[in-house]
## 1
Amino acid sequence: MSKEKKLVEEITSMETDFARWYTDIVLKAELVDYTSVKGCLVIRPAGYAIWENMKNEIDRRFKETGIQNCYLPMFIPESLLQKEADHVEGFAPEVAWVTHGGLEELDERLCVRPTSETLFCDYYSKVVKSYRDLPQLLNQWCSVVRWEKTTRPFLRSREFLWQEGHTVHASAKEAHDRTVQMLEVYADFFEKDLAIPVIRGIKTDKEKFAGAEATYTIEALMHDGKALQSGTSHYFGDGFAKAFDVTFTDKDNQIKPVFETSFGMTTRIIGAVIMVHGDNSGLKLPPHIAPIQVNIIPVAAHKEGVLDAANALKNRLVAAGVRVKLDDSEKSPGFKFAESEMRGIPLRIEIGPKDIENNQCVFVRRDNGEKIFVSLENVESEAKECLENIQTNMYETALAHREAHTYEARTMEEFKDIADNKPGFIKAMWCGDRACEDKIKEEAGATSRCMPEAQEQLSDVCVCCGKKATKMVYWGKAY
Amino acid sequence: MSKEKKLVEEITSMETDFARWYTDIVLKAELVDYTSVKGCLVIRPAGYAIWENMKNEIDRRFKETGIQNCYLPMFIPESLLQKEADHVEGFAPEVAWVTHGGLEELDERLCVRPTSETLFCDYYSKVVKSYRDLPQLLNQWCSVVRWEKTTRPFLRSREFLWQEGHTVHASAKEAHDRTVQMLEVYADFFEKDLAIPVIRGIKTDKEKFAGAEATYTIEALMHDGKALQSGTSHYFGDGFAKAFDVTFTDKDNQIKPVFETSFGMTTRIIGAVIMVHGDNSGLKLPPHIAPIQVNIIPVAAHKEGVLDAANALKNRLVAAGVRVKLDDSEKSPGFKFAESEMRGIPLRIEIGPKDIENNQCVFVRRDNGEKIFVSLENVESEAKECLENIQTNMYETALAHREAHTYEARTMEEFKDIADNKPGFIKAMWCGDRACEDKIKEEAGATSRCMPEAQEQLSDVCVCCGKKATKMVYWGKAY
């Protein structure tokens, strides 16, 4: 029992200190580790396998919409970065600069890409000539660098992994539709595969991406009531096209600029999974993206027939397409249970001598702890159904949590009271004025998360200044 | 006809100028394009899709041997790079240096990884404590940077994509076995999936990896008779372990250094596929890694029923798991044929009014141009069988070419004559002396490619100095 205790003991409870709980989990579940490179982490196999599954699900959805993958250089010459004024203003202060190649100083500094709008525009300016070349629907999976001062595993680090999609179109409408379509792809992935409900909406001008005309976002609520921006899709109009001279000859023989979009999702969504689903026993992975969906733990494994039965069970589940591990190590069952919980494996199956006698095994669900005796007869279909139930229940639990932590404010007094005492989303009307947005941040510590698709008329006036309201906004403290 | 002519016309024939033929193909088949970043390329969708298929095949094989993926930082602090003397000497002259982060100068320069032995050792020194933690079998897919002076698409560029596997073991034997095992994984992938025969062997000390005790390699022969080092697997002994203090407590309670390996394969293997299989009509992709395996081209597509039949055919092949494209664009059939050849699609299927009448279609093989009338009855199995035949034939053709261009030399005169007049591999005996290796390079322009597994005793004496020979070596001019 001492080892089991140790495994659990070392996690700070989330009620005591949510930030420490989070860090304990990412380290104890062996998702990441610190390195000798300041602000950069190792993503360990257990963490990377989650990312691989996320990638596969996102990539499949992308390809279904006609997107193709490619790879552009990791370096951007300083002159290229500077071509679009808003963009360079947003990114130049936080990029890493390469100044020497081999033993020589470079003629021109290169930054390590913080994002690749500039390179994609440079590329499109070469390959797009006619309306027949449009649309171009490209994406790349890569790492990017932003020289952050403070970092946290997955949520903010100097280097992170992501995908960045960049498309160009013949018309503003088509580009705008694509922007919205990709936000919906993200939302669908979050809700179906990560079991995390999201608010779909548009960023205010203050919060939008450097150089974009409009930034669409999905926002998720973490267990501690803080928001996490989880995926963004940007509409650029023809601003970048004009700066980079990306033009095409249209059907009417006129030369016109293209309309552009970009959209990205990063390894920070692993942080979202941890902070939405995890508990004081560790990680809880949604079955759709769990590298191991079922952990078979033999009980009294030394007794005759137990390991054989466990192995037979494993082979049956593998053949049925379930991702299974059989833990036949020498650790005690209790330790294995605690470890399985720490690592967030959705379903644990115990099998011992008595179970074999009764032609059964025991399912233990990670999401709610439920114990179910299951006949070995149809264990494949039972396991698959149980995993889908876990997936659904995790989504519903997260949705209920978000609904219980979403508040409405009609006055600044109400707003500040909620912000101070009730962690969560705050819905409130806004006049559209930057001054009010700044004031809300200053006085209540909350930023605008988004102007949701699903607008509600909570009142006619801005929660801050009392003038005519134009939008309902989700506000919150955010990662 | 003018358009078809144009597409083909623009390729230099390989007999005229092999280097230009190669460059023409990578550009015309839209595999890569140049960028504003000197020495770095865009890998375009048609090129990246090939890499994705290669990745999947390699990654699957890796995982079957127990390897897991992870991700380490792209930056290496200068002090970390310098810990292993041979390694830093090999790489320091060709790395890119980051000196500024945001607006500030860094305390210590960071290089962009040229390879990650140092980072993996740093990581393993933290996580490996006991023999129970061994072996560690990790791999990462990423990009690396080497500041090359001259570059060529895929073959040599400042940034390239690769995988790098890094393992640590409790014993020298286990590490050595792993080194050989991974070489065999590479060889199997090359021969089965890329249809390229390889020579498996060991590098001489002169040609081995910086810091390695032994470098194993697979060497392939290109169509022009030059060799391409196509994948390497390194055995490090405990050199790095001692430099980085990667130690473990063994079963006997003694603290010991681990034994290490690394192995890598890069996007240059796309160059190998082009230069082994391509011809003057363009690329020839082996079916196993071709993003599109079958290109259906309707003939007289405007006639009633043709497009419907082509679509029905496509759906049947897709359902059978074949990667199919239906080219229903407005280009002429002749242009489509030429384009399909340029892009290296293994099998073209033509279907027109007469074929529909006869319940048939026409297969045209890219590998040998053969035309086959195939009943629509069992077109799925016929297509799959045909693709496998193409795969096999491509391998056999490449093998025959290599055998026809492998020579033996017993004297320096013979050696120089072959090197001057007969492009290909030269098998010759060697005394093991670096001086002879240098002299052969100077006088015949050939480098040692490898000391093959399959040794032959061509003579008793070194081809260069006449002293006692210790090894038969494959020599050649190389990319």
## 2
Amino acid sequence: MNAKPPTSLDVARLAGVSQATVSYVLNDRPGMRISDETRARVREAADRLGYVPHAGARTLRTGRSGLVLISMEDIPYGPLAVGMLEELDRELSRRGYTLVQYGARRLRGVPAARAWAELRPVAVLAGAGKLSRQALEVLRSAGVKAVIALGNQPSPVVPSVALDHEGIGVLAAGHLIDRGCRTLAAIVPTEVGLREMGERRLAGVQRVARARGVPLTRVDLPFREESAAALADLWRAVDGVFAYNDEYAMLLMAVLGDAGLTVPGDVRVVGCDDLPLAALLRPRLTTVRLDLSAMPSTLVQRLEELIAEGQGTPYRIDPWTATLVVRESS
Amino acid sequence: MNAKPPTSLDVARLAGVSQATVSYVLNDRPGMRISDETRARVREAADRLGYVPHAGARTLRTGRSGLVLISMEDIPYGPLAVGMLEELDRELSRRGYTLVQYGARRLRGVPAARAWAELRPVAVLAGAGKLSRQALEVLRSAGVKAVIALGNQPSPVVPSVALDHEGIGVLAAGHLIDRGCRTLAAIVPTEVGLREMGERRLAGVQRVARARGVPLTRVDLPFREESAAALADLWRAVDGVFAYNDEYAMLLMAVLGDAGLTVPGDVRVVGCDDLPLAALLRPRLTTVRLDLSAMPSTLVQRLEELIAEGQGTPYRIDPWTATLVVRESS
């Protein structure tokens, strides 16, 4: 039922100008003297026909595009990630870029790069694991000016935003030992996507426990009440738990209560994220808060530098701080 | 530092064929007889140069694109919305489409449609409030085949996925009154984006309360412990609360406990969403569970119908069911 979409030729005919003039006017190409009257006539014709310049075609001619592509990753998006994406979107909008989140998350390497490149973005943000050297070549060939890797491990090929998960474990373990804990446990989630972050947080806990001579039990735990409840004997044998995050801490505190154990009397508990639920738990949850508020603006600044200067060497972008919020559970 | 991206002309020269042949081969255009040997030569040349066909240019020629654009909306994305988006992405991938989430969320109406249209998507999913009749014309002119509205109210111009929030209120209120509640309260969040959904859930509660002769107090509440705690006298005066969602229910149960009120003895509480935290609360939370599992596949089916048949008349797509999960809090 749709007629063929109007073309710039249709606009040119209606406005009585050349197709090149239409292109100059609608794509704001510099270096051409076109009268205001002609510009107005072209714009009016485009409006009347409902003509929309084509991002692709425009990029082909001008070599510029304002799209910043971020690949959807196979990690469970928590409230923090969602909030950061929203802020990144706003920050990019303010600077004249548009954020597009690209699906098809199975893709990685060269096939991923080819798919992303078809949109001719000016910049790409993607999981470090998806960015091979060859993939990067494809992106560069397609005119992508800036690539930043995301993830738990820095990328060896491009600048990375890599959260310092070990630092979280260090903070939590240090606090528990300071509070007098002598037998620690640390939860590592078994969920895909969470496990890797759990391993890295555990590494931080291990480092501190070893340095301070405190025994540590690693607990691989699915997010299920029955699984946590089945470990009642283990919880009885420790006096401090780093619960990976606030949701696991809530799970743990529920089964500790059911088993007749008190928090912090019998077991001190520390979470991570400072979700709203942390302050609503009874006892209120001690947790590691990640301040990511500087992340979106820092990320956009780095993007603009890379766009201006071309691809940078790998370095780590670390615009965040972790602080301990001490409440009642520890 | 990047050289100019390779063009199809570069590929044609290297392969010793015409630019048209390159286009036919790389864009899988039907109706041309090209030998396998030539096809292989073109593909090899494209690989060697790192040439990526341009989504935009390809769309211009073939009139087809596999992009399904969903606009990021100014609603707080809860875990349900994020999970659904991930499933939608997978479902679209299976059928050969690619989901792109488009930022710049301030845009609405014609400016939004123009921006989306530049990517030449085959389908657009966007908040009903963003889709004016004129916006729809812009999308149609740009070759968008299917448009589906999302939101709390059905769109008057295109098919809509509109969740039945009133139905949630009806379920919760009916259950509380069945359990013997004689003075109800319903929480309406004051947060932008949640308020509208809260109003519609309230409307369902009101309907049932009126029909069954039970007085109802509307409580406009920010998500803050102090605000909920300040209403202790109000909570003392009611015996059943529909708390809007599970997170508000957790907030409410924390302050009820602090005020010495028991759940469900003094006050019965019902949440909504059946988040993991619902079963972890003590007492365990009764909640309305939304089964959205059929949503992604239904949405993709409708999209494919609309793509095949052209824009449809407005109708309501309602592939979800709400059920009450009765636990200990009611």
## 3
Amino acid sequence: MRILVVNVNTTDSMTKTIGEQAMAAAAPGTEIVALTPAFGADSVEGNYESHLAAIAVMETVRAYPEPYDAVIQAGYGEHGREGLQEILDVPVVDITEAAAATAQFLGRSYSVVTTLDRAVPLIEDRLLLAGLSARCASVRASGMAVLDLERDPDAAVEAIVDEAVRAVQQDRAEVICLGCGGMAGLTERVVERTGVPVVDGVAAAVTIAESLVRLGLKTSKVRTFAPPRPKQFRAWPMAV
Amino acid sequence: MRILVVNVNTTDSMTKTIGEQAMAAAAPGTEIVALTPAFGADSVEGNYESHLAAIAVMETVRAYPEPYDAVIQAGYGEHGREGLQEILDVPVVDITEAAAATAQFLGRSYSVVTTLDRAVPLIEDRLLLAGLSARCASVRASGMAVLDLERDPDAAVEAIVDEAVRAVQQDRAEVICLGCGGMAGLTERVVERTGVPVVDGVAAAVTIAESLVRLGLKTSKVRTFAPPRPKQFRAWPMAV
Amino acid sequence: MRILVVNVNTTDSMTKTIGEQAMAAAAPGTEIVALTPAFGADSVEGNYESHLAAIAVMETVRAYPEPYDAVIQAGYGEHGREGLQEILDVPVVDITEAAAATAQFLGRSYSVVTTLDRAVPLIEDRLLLAGLSARCASVRASGMAVLDLERDPDAAVEAIVDEAVRAVQQDRAEVICLGCGGMAGLTERVVERTGVPVVDGVAAAVTIAESLVRLGLKTSKVRTFAPPRPKQFRAWPMAV
Amino acid sequence: MRILVVNVNTTDSMTKTIGEQAMAAAAPGTEIVALTPAFGADSVEGNYESHLAAIAVMETVRAYPEPYDAVIQAGYGEHGREGLQEILDVPVVDITEAAAATAQFLGRSYSVVTTLDRAVPLIEDRLLLAGLSARCASVRASGMAVLDLERDPDAAVEAIVDEAVRAVQQDRAEVICLGCGGMAGLTERVVERTGVPVVDGVAAAVTIAESLVRLGLKTSKVRTFAPPRPKQFRAWPMAV
Amino acid sequence: MRILVVNVNTTDSMTKTIGEQAMAAAAPGTEIVALTPAFGADSVEGNYESHLAAIAVMETVRAYPEPYDAVIQAGYGEHGREGLQEILDVPVVDITEAAAATAQFLGRSYSVVTTLDRAVPLIEDRLLLAGLSARCASVRASGMAVLDLERDPDAAVEAIVDEAVRAVQQDRAEVICLGCGGMAGLTERVVERTGVPVVDGVAAAVTIAESLVRLGLKTSKVRTFAPPRPKQFRAWPMAV
Amino acid sequence: MRILVVNVNTTDSMTKTIGEQAMAAAAPGTEIVALTPAFGADSVEGNYESHLAAIAVMETVRAYPEPYDAVIQAGYGEHGREGLQEILDVPVVDITEAAAATAQFLGRSYSVVTTLDRAVPLIEDRLLLAGLSARCASVRASGMAVLDLERDPDAAVEAIVDEAVRAVQQDRAEVICLGCGGMAGLTERVVERTGVPVVDGVAAAVTIAESLVRLGLKTSKVRTFAPPRPKQFRAWPMAV
């Protein structure tokens, strides 16, 4: 089984990290192909870059030679999953939704802890549209940008762990979804300080994609995700 | 006052029609500038084209020389309004939301009647995210594609009017929002057959944009729509 | 175009203030007629006075000679809008709903800041019935009564501004609707301290009423707001 | 124990019927006082009359000499209950809410069957505000006006029974609340044809009022229903 | 009229207390029969014991000789009410739901104050399933276990009263439902400190059960609570 | 990895079928142990049997010797999952929830098709409590009992397939969850007739359980599913 894991930003080192996270979660026999979008921003922290990423991810996947069995969109709270489901037959899994759906099996409510405050509405919108917000206790931001994470990882981890603790104590979360990139030791620190299970979106998405493939399930094509109708495109060389 | 009205597809004749609808609704002294996206599909009837339109509309607006006072995104149920609000300071009005917000002042519930069945989920998602779905009685499709509208306008109008009648009688809608392009006589026919007010999204959006400008109101910049953070872009010459 | 703006209390000086607010927002060519109810309380701060105001506003409008093009009910969180829509054909706009509908175009969520705590449930009920509560972050009270506003305007303004700041910081509001009468400088102070757009209900209602009139839209008469059926009235000389 | 049961219209014969229904449900030792409003319409079938009834019921109760132990507002889907709770200390029970709250103990969902279609939104609004709509399967209208009930009672009963059957079969209601005046044999016919329990609002309200009194419970006065603040009234001789 | 009041735990002294509470609320002529389950835990503070109690209560009621007119399940937030409604024709009232339904007639919102934090989700689930959560302001735990209540009643009462005050001040509750067993003076202390009405679930359930019986209403048998279908049971001697 | 798959009824042949379904879905290296409850009904079609099954499943699991890595409760719409989560540390997966969570990755909405009408509310309640009802289009019953399935499998399959078609066409479901036991060829027939993906709960649950185990995730123990507190049990020899 081959799964494409598509980063939403153009930072190759992050694609590599995501690919490694995916591989660590993958079953024996699963091949992970980590892709960087052909165009876009070096990090996605708002709607403009996220909308650009949406189409970049679609075109990048479409340019990749078949066969593959599933696609994972590896951005937290980003636009575009519906488009991937429309242009592909194989299952598509968004890591925001994968984390939430997994968390719901582990406790009565979950919180997402992310980086910047401005990411919170994007994540909330994804969960609402995906029908996964009823048991979402909160989406919390640590106030740390992606660059902060690299510049002062200790402070960043601490800020994130603090929000996780608040989510458990004040918002009554029973599970934490980490809505930010793979920092060394982050998961362990959150588990240790909160005592609750911590779900990583990439890992969760890999197991869900594998499961769908193994069960022979594909995206429904009857209405919302029916293949695109034929169109004439102007000034967009990448179109089908 | 100058308002940009941006079509979501690349069919110039539709841009022209939309511009005329906007002008018909505009107050004296309002200048309407109708724009066709620099790239994209000739009609938008699904997520792939809609995601492409989202970024195309943003780049087209950004390439347009200031000053202008407000921007209208003239596509029914399309992605991208959040991005426009983020990159601009002036008010941004989506016609799907403008029609619904206007309809709510006219009756206890409203229905949207649109073309293809596959547009229904896109419209429902926009209304849900905009907080406008509580009084939405239904979103109904006539099954007619845009090309059908041109090929056999009489049959198309009839199919749309029939759905509007069903919305009023079966779904208890008290107002109809027309979620499809300007066909001659369509509004009149729906009013005549249903006896309820019919709201056109483009016209509604123009008056809302004018009102926001006149009241001196602009998009809030504290969180969700704060300006994009500085980024490095790869292979995307249009970025800021 | 002539718009009736009806105060809900019998204090003529407040009617005058409301009329001036309305005129300041009106387009050239719009005539504003500010009306004081023929009977009722000098201020409305609870259900008893509000129910009395509901019928007083209706009778006052009905006694006013036609023609007029729209009616605005200028009380925050008051009963009665449904009745006006029923007895009139022209559009009816409630300022509570006008402010909320306008705020939703400016940010992802809004809060209302009002005077007394007891007004909060009345406002929440209006927003719920109007289908405008999904994006309402909070309704907050400053604890100041109308008389307090006149007695110590500086303290009143300060209390209101403080609640607006809490709404933005704690409740994550991105827009503020002011649910209390026109105090000098209030809007400016809230904008200055919070950095978010502030919507005044009277001004918003005027532009919405003008827009509906210009678009030729009237209240739907198919069900909820069908004209009253003929009745025999006892001891109520004002009835139709 | 003395309970005031207040009709919402000025038809004395209906007050008498309501009083008899109440007495039939009352416990030994409960005194029922049926009151007709001092002013208002001979039947209430819309917002205008309902708003008039709201204030008429309040003034009628206030003019009635104490002591009494509870008040029942005996109109289906009418405005005004909040005002009564505000001006009184004793418990106030609305028959729409009493029927729904009672029905919820008897089955998983309930429907209301009422007379005219225009009453449906009024009833739905009351249930929504009262927090009783989650298990409401539907509110259905038979299309019969109050006068129809008297003119052709057999046809009226048949129309109502037919709607009740549809509620059970199509909407999956497990209990029926009758939202229309006491027609001879109506309850029995609905029970017979549907096989589900049928709740009469007046009877339910009497037992709830009695229960609250016996338990020593009164309306909470901390916020929403705190007593009215002192006011100056113009041209309203009945004010406190 | 004979009402069975069934404790959910096997502590006979608690059954006695519950029986006395029920008798204090009962009308003259109502016979209260307090039952202890034939098997189960000495206190129910979690799902395991609650599921055991669910079946124990059912079998205990079934083993009790008819006639009786109604059954009350006297555990706060426990499983099993649906099963009782299924196996019995007479009305079944759960005290969690009885308290909430009663509270809704007394104020705009209510909070439940209970003992252990782990009971909160159980109570929330019951209210959600019963359609009674729309006006629930909060469910709060004092952190006191049942044994704490006996060991240090003064501290326990104080902890509970403190949570009730927080519910009124922070969560805007207007009524308090006590979700914990009868401690001497508890109700009075909460009323005194909060100034809001306090509802005891057992007392509320008795009056509701009496009312349903007096009105001749029984559980609907059309779908959800239709009698069990005939089955073969293995290793369960108590089955029908 | 060893997964216990626990039937909810005492029919050994059904346990065998369920075990085979589970094995067909399991990854290489996963050992499936199918268990029949130690006591209970031969089929579960209502609340009484379901409550009995809840405690029977718990005791059966507890009596089974460790080690095992996850537990699946293989009944559609049954009580008891919360209790299993409380008494165990390993992940617990309910097949109703597993099917729904899986379906949500394949289409915008899903329907459940089950056997008897009386199972519908039980399934709806499970989905509501699990936070999985926002995208549930409908739960539909074919009217076929379990015994009918065996007696006339062709008619049963046809009735179920017909409901699935209605779910897709009338309720706009894009995925079907089969809420009834494994009939030969059922899945294929539904796929063939509806053209949408069909999810089997047992298979979905196996892959979810495997995924949780592989990711090292266990049930959160901070609040709702904290281990039971020590209790004294009366007449229940199976208690801990």
